[in-house]
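>> received
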Amino acid sequence: MNPSQEAERLRLFVSRISDYAIYMLAPDGTVASWNAGAQRFKGYTADEIIGQHFSRFYTEREREAGIPQKALALARDTGKFEAEGWRVRKDGTEFWASVVIDPIRDESGELVGFAKITRDISEKRAAQQALRESEQRFRMLVQGVTDYAIYMLSPTGEITNWNAGARRIKQYEQDEVLGSHFSRFYTEEDREAGKPYRALEEATAKGRFEAEGWRVRKDGTRFWAHVVIDSIRNEAGELVGFAKITRDITERQQAAQALEKAREILFQSQKLEAIGKLTGGVAHDFNNLLSVITNGLDLLRPTVKDPEGLGLIESMEKAAMRGASLTNQLLTFARQQPVTPEPRDLNRVVAGFESVLRRATRSSVKFEIEVAGELPSVMIDMALFETALLNLVVNANDATLDGGSIRVTTHVSDLADAQVGSLPKGRYVVVSVQDTGSGMSEDVISRAIEPFFTTKPVGKGTGLGLSQVYGMVQQFGGELKIVSQPSQGTTISLYFPASSEAPVQDAGPPPSDKVLIVDDQPDVLDMATEMFRTLGFDVITAASGRQALEILSRTHDIHLLFSDVVMPGLNGVELGKKAQEISPQTRILLSSGYTTPAGSLKGFEFVAKPYRMADILKKLRSLG
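>> returned
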């Protein structure tokens, strides 16, 4: 094939191409040839356009800017011009074109014209533009979300972008976190446990990781987060990064915890209410039986003459007294004890009871009291409160080793609803007993206030002390709270609703002076002696009225005479009258197992057997 034939074939090939406008320009830019593609794109026939300047295909603004001339100059000087832009058809419509202009030179290097190839890529551009707009809308959507932290991670966990939600939830600006590892948002303990890296490993292996846990803000505060991490892969399946979505669900978690706490409180309340009803009923019935037994023994004693029979009666009386003490504790737990609440300043009550509390602790254990500067009053039965406080201190003393410490404190606390137990929102006065003792496990804490539950060895405790304290504080509208860990000590706090009433002013605590205890029954005498020693008294004992008179005649600083009424020889009433003659300053408190003891009690305070420490405290207050 000769050169002319080959040139003709090439001309025919180019002229028939319809997907590209391929045509020649003279060195000055006039159109020298025209193919089918050029006619299809631009709407001109060859006769209409050959000899015309190619700038007519440009928009008016580009012609005014000299763009066509600049394109030819760039092609001539650099060997090629390539660009995209708007072009104009014969009918005035515009299309987006991809343009290439190559200079054509002869064998001597002289410019003889330009080869121009134009392609209509309007559809491609429209698709690209739609994709960009879609990406922009998506980017704006993600950036505008404030309830979720949405951001991307590199394959190794570095942060590559940051949205407004991430800034709001985590408090970091984008410049502060870009390029840093996302593990910075985890708690220190979670980082040490490798949780951030395990999350990425799971997302890589399974395509997704989802979990909840604590995360840390810039200011160091924590929030409970719901986290989703999705792996992102390209068309070849290669991992290119992760999409991470975090939501702050602290309020939801707190609500769930509050609901669970309310359920636990309700269950505990229902359980204790059921136990209280049972124990209260049993205690009432048992107390009635004990009354028959103790009164019967008092009636039986004068008819028994032999020592063996008297010994049996004494043993039975001792057992009855212990039973009465247990039933009284059960009644306190069941909130069925008669009470006389009065407005009291707990600072004064605790301070006035300090000597008794100190005597209840070993000298090897440090004991201290720390009261708030000023407290509102609370409605309590003072004797019951003092008995409960003494119970707590005795328990703390039993749990604390030598060298440890016990601290009694008071303060005011403003509580939200159900912040402590089921207490309503309001102001409360709190009395706490804190020790450095053996502490309690969660399981023990959950059962600590149940009647008869004890961790002490058999015979060392009834398991009623703490249940009695719980019943007392519940009876006055308060709550008991236990905070403890094994080997870390225990803090038991009593919460009492604050009252607006002015506190009752009294003469102060029972004096820690001498008491003369008189009873012809040794077991009863021993029990009363231990009780008064616990209350801080120096105790002198006598086994008969005559012996007591001898002591009174030679000892003139006895503050209190505590005597049984029914005794052989000189009875308690007669002893009391003679004591007033010998020592007018001595206060008289009589006791008997009879509901109405023989003899006139005018001028004397009286407490019925079996009596509790709370009963004694009430009488001592009234005696002054």
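>> The chain has a mean pLDDT of 80.
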